[in-house]
Design goal:
single chain, alpha/beta, Rossmann fold, Helicase, Ruva Protein, domain 3, Zinc Finger, Delta Prime, domain 3, 3 domains, 5-stranded parallel beta sheet, 17 helices, 5 strands, 8% strand
């Protein structure tokens, strides 16, 4: 089952007892989790809701939480994020619960990746509990834009849709944010035009963002700070710069994976969600970012995102600290 089928089923009132949601598209995962939570505990029920992280929990704790009798006659919602960070033995210890799931709980596991040969994955697929949440390819983005526009009851010009995809690529979180800002920018009932997209979304200069990515890859702190300062002078919000930097590095990671799988540079570029003419530039970036560098970059950017959203320190300082950490030798 894919994540969209899960969300549709939950919307129809078909709440599964267990969902093992695996993939890297955070927007889809968050929407599925939100739908399952609403179907189980409504707008919120702190007495019947528990959240765990794979790095700091155990199978026994999760199963105990699921089998705890709900308070006030409701149902329990148990969410376990990053189940792939559990030890292999602990993951295996969850398998018996899938065959004996209680109907008074909705248990949700999320992970970026799980071994398809593992007992948990095999059991989840057999029970119909396995859900995939993979990123969209660039050709599918136009259709997704129109679905989102319809869902939000907005009006979007055809050329505006093309500009939006060109500006954002396959970053669904950025698209979600852009549509929210565009709806506020044009006002209730007004159409979203190409001019509105250019004013609200396309202001981040892609060449400067790539200069920032290149400088990070080469550990050139001076060049990285110069690129970031240029964007800040253009009044780009620090959180937006951070999001664009993360998006570009995700593209580099996908490019690296594509090349490693034997794709041609052009094929890998398309699979990464970038236009084919970026093949040479992306190939160079992929050579600079090894697996350890990519992992470190994503960790630093995730931490910076949390810090900026928390408001301390101010956004520009948090962005600067992230760049200093990313360019540390």
């Amino acid at each position: 089952m894919d994540v969209h089928a899960l969300i549709d089923a939950v919307t129809r009132g078909e709440r599964p007892l267990v969902s093992v949601i695996v993939g890297t598209e955070r927007l889809f995962i968050d929407r599925a989790v939100a739908a399952l939570r609403r179907a189980t505990v409504g707008d919120g029920d702190p007495w019947n809701e528990e959240l765990f992280n794979g790095k700091s929990t155990s199978a026994a704790r999760v199963i105990d939480a699921a089998r705890t009798i709900p308070m006030l006659g409701g149902a329990r919602f148990v969410l376990v994020r990053a189940i792939d960070e559990l030890a292999d033995k602990e993951i295996d210890n969850l398998v018996p619960y899938l065959s004996a799931a209680v109907d008074s709980a909705c248990v949700v596991f999320t992970a970026e990746k799980l071994d398809g040969r593992s007992k948990l994955v095999k059991a989840a697929k057999q029970k119909g509990f396995y859900v995939e949440a993979q990123p969209l390819k660039l050709p599918a983005m136009r259709e997704f834009v129109w679905r989102e526009v319809k869902r939000r009851k907005l009006t979007l010009h055809e050329d505006a849709a093309a500009s939006l995809v060109d500006a954002i690529g396959t970053d669904l979180s950025a698209l979600d944010d852009a549509l929210e800002r565009l709806s506020l920018y044009v006002g209730d009932g007004q159409p979203i035009t190409r001019e509105a997209v250019e004013a609200c979304v396309s202001r981040v200069r892609v060449d400067t963002i790539w200069a920032l990515v290149d400088a990070v890859g080469m550990r050139d702190r001076r060049a990285a700070m110069k690129a970031a300062s240029s964007l800040l002078r253009d009044r780009e919000p620090p959180l937006r710069i951070l999001a664009m930097l993360a998006r570009q590095i995700r593209i580099v990671a996908r490019m690296r994976d594509g090349l490693a799988s034997g794709m041609s540079p052009q094929e890998a570029t398309t699979a990464a969600g970038a236009p084919p003419f970026k093949a040479r530039e992306l190939g160079a970036a992929a050579r600079r970012f090894g697996p350890e560098e990519l992992s470190r970059a994503f960790r630093v950017l995730a931490e910076a995102d949390m810090i900026q959203k928390g408001g301390r320190p101010p956004g520009a300082i948090a962005l600067e600290n992230a760049i200093l950490e990313l360019t540390r030798s």
